[in-house]
Design a protein that fits this description.
- Two copies of one chain form a homodimer.
- The termini of chain A are far apart.
- The relative contact order of chain A is 0.16.
- In chain A, α6 runs parallel beside α7.
- The first copy, chain A, folds into two domains: 126 residues, Aspartate Aminotransferase, domain 1 (Alpha-Beta Complex); 232 residues, 3-Layer(aba) Sandwich (Aspartate Aminotransferase, domain 2).
- With 400 residues, chain A is an alpha/beta fold.
- Chain A is built from 14 helices and 14 strands.
- The longest helix of chain A has 21 residues.
């Protein structure tokens, strides 16, 4: 028998060698207890969480929790069915209503994960003979949606307006085209020049899909994301989002004003051929989304946190992924993977959890310590975070 | 601008024509209230549910509900992170322990949906130069996993042992091969001849993956599925399963004894690049799985229900998809789509919900009314179901 796993041998070997050095495995950490949106017990130690996407800290909101508990009691633990069969409960309709209201759009379609939202929408709407034009630093779920579909894929250099135009110019004028962008790119926390890119796409007859996973709830006047903040939301054909970041649970969605949008529910395979979200999940999501509509105070505090951390880390001598704070993600650039892993572990020992990101997930072969702020981080916590970063950075020799 | 949705116009037109006839849309039913695993309010009417995959009726189990509510309170509404970053909580470890115990296997890996389990495992382990040999009636998630991977795809006629052997014989002896089978095929409720097929696969040097989504919990001595019932579980390399059927919530998994299995957690994109399941979901799943280990009484009652319904429908003159009850799914064959839709609606008016399945989802262009039984259906309910089927069947002219 040919072992299908033999292709993973080099990786297994590489991993064994790394773990043999005695480092803590950054990819198998367990949150033993979770105390709040910003604190957990890891390896028996109370730890500040600075590497979750819990931007608005809704996971422990009292109304959210109660909505989930009530739905469990009233509707049971799961739907055991697809949305197109027995899996549409009242709660699924309600969360779609909440999304339509949140984005002020005509249609909202909820998927069981954010990954499946990108996978399904992209592979379904861009078919044989169509083109998908995407930023080369797009999320894996966008690439996987491209791979599952039959469209031609054309990538352009990250956030490069001219590169986008050059690609658009070369495509057949009458072909179907879908430009796929993200509001915030999660590796560096930088934002797309959506105003210019959306305008360009329209000029060349392309439709536009924007993934606003990392902006929902706090970027833009109503928290609708970067497209709202840059005044081009009305020209975006499809917004993709997730419940597993600011909303604080799991699931994905697409909102749109396209008059034919509802047909997606019958043709989109990752929507049709999967069980719908449990009643408790849609209830927590709907409650959270409605609260996010009135979250301007929390939003302001999150921005303050992000700016304070960005300035503090810069002042301490760290090299950051962006010149200023554009989002709730701040990426600290490490000189190499080895020292990145050491710094990650040193921070964990200080009681601070961040995400270690390494190639190939990162742009330009960088090793990053990615920090994501939460609206529930207190100013004291941000001060404490800076102190821990500084101590660990000196110990590992990242800063002087 | 070329509208990417114009490709759906024929389908939109066809659907409009159907709905203009005044029929109830079978694909947009809403469960307004859910009263129990077997009853709900649809269109304002109390309805017996005979078209869910809630085989063991765990969705309203008191211990399951309480576990979910407690986890919401103690761990929050979501993890907001991937399993390989901040998304592994104590509860994710616990549900994987429960799965290992349930299947008596060394490794268990939980995905956020069952769809993503098939998508991820198949596309990751069968790569360029490998072959996937699959039953032509395989579930969409299996086909999508094939599409996302780079292996060569070879389909064989449904449940045809000779056809499988013919395909295996033609493939290069030393190539990597993965035979993909399902224990129960959900359209007709028939089961695979796993004993012979697994033996054949091994004989030709192939690894074997079996999707036991529709058998977990009640087929086989310990509810491990058709492979257990036919005595070949030890020769199956990967078992795929779901939390959205017998377990009663949402999620998917793979269990395996392969010594290198854990590397999947780093290379399987639909596992890495997605948020993990909320604490309440893994808590309900773990509790449910542990109770299913001791569910032999419920299992026996479900078998009784399935046999009673099969015999009753046969005696009433309906044509069924299988000669006897092989699983908890009983498919009633309709003469054509039009009368199938009429019968589906007549049953709904009687207060009975079944699944309408139509081409291309069904084998051989059939229209089916698919019934799935639940261990919580009482004997009285099964009698009532038979009475309603008979009345509706006579009214629509399916039976004399």
């Amino acid at each position: 028998m040919t072992d299908l796993f033999s292709k993973f041998d080099p990786l297994i070997e590489q991993r064994r060698a790394l773990l043999d050095t005695g480092v803590t495995d950054p990819f198998s950490l367990v949150m033993e207890k979770v105390l709040s949106p910003t604190t957990a017990i890891c390896n028996g130690r109370e730890t500040i969480l600075l590497g979750t996407y819990n931007y608005m800290g809704m996971t422990f909101d009292e109304d959210v929790i109660k909505a989930g508990q009530d739905a469990l009691r009233d509707f049971g633990a799961g739907t055991t069915g697809s949305r197109v069969l027995n899996g549409t409960y009242q709660g699924h309709k309600e969360v779609e209503e909440a999304l339509k209201e949140f984005y002020a759009m005509d249609h909202a379609m909820v998927f069981s994960t954010g990954y499946q939202a990108n996978l399904g929408i992209i592979s379904t709407i861009a078919g044989k003979g169509d083109y998908v034009i995407l930023d080369i630093d797009s999320h894996a779920s966008i690439y996987d949606g491209c791979k599952m579909g039959d469209a031609e894929i054309v990538a352009f250099r990250h956030n490069d307006i001219e590169a986008l135009e050059k690609r658009l110019k070369r495509l057949p004028a009458d072909a179907g085209k879908l430009v796929v962008l993200e509001g915030v790119y999660s590796m560096l926390g930088d934002i797309a020049p959506l105003d210019k890119m959306v305008k360009l796409a329209k000029q060349y007859g392309a439709m536009v899909l924007v993934d606003e996973a990392h902006s929902m709830g706090f970027i833009g006047e109503h928290g609708r994301g970067v497209a709202e903040a840059q005044g081009v939301l009305d020209d975006v054909d499809f917004v993709i989002g997730t419940f597993s970041k600011s909303v604080g649970t799991v699931g994905g969605f697409c909102v749109s004003n396209h008059p034919k949008f509802e047909i997606m529910r019958l043709v989109c395979r990752p929507y049709v051929f999967t069980a719908s979200l449990p009643p408790s999940v849609v209830a927590t999501a709907a409650t959270s989304i409605r609260k996010l509509m009135h979250g301007s105070n929390k939003r302001a505090h999150l921005w303050e946190n992000s700016k304070t951390l960005h300035k503090g880390l810069t002042d301490a001598g760290f090299e950051l992924g962006t010149k200023e704070a554009h989002s709730a993600i701040i990426a600290v650039i490490m000189p190499d993977l080895e020292r990145g892993a050491m710094m990650w572990e040193a921070l964990l020992e200080e009681g601070l959890y961040v995400n270690l990101a390494r190639p190939p997930a990162t742009p330009a072969g960088m090793t990053l310590l990615r920090c994501s702020l939460c609206a529930e981080h207190s100013s004291d916590q941000v001060g404490e975070i800076l102190a821990r970063f500084t101590r660990a950075g000196k110990r590992v020799g990242i800063i002087a």
